[in-house]
User: Which sequence fits this backbone?
């Protein structure tokens, strides 16, 4: 029974790291393209820039988090 639990936990940890990587990439892309076109977006551009940075940081936290 404990072997199955260990396998499931390993799969969840792997999924967490992959999801963190995907979130980081999406957040960086969002922040990059928003910063390039910031003047054309107006005031809402800053909201998207902050959202992109927040998503990237959340992804990095998922990558570096240690699961016990």
Assistant:
């Amino acid at each position: 029974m404990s072997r199955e639990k260990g396998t499931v936990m390993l799969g969840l940890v792997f999924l967490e790291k992959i999801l963190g990587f995907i979130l980081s990439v999406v957040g960086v892309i969002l922040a990059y393209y928003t910063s390039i076109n910031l003047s054309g977006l107006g005031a809402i551009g800053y909201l998207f820039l902050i959202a992109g940075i927040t998503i990237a940081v959340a992804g990095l936290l998922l990558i570096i988090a240690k699961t016990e």
Remarks:
- The mean pLDDT is 89.
- The chain has one domain: 2-64.
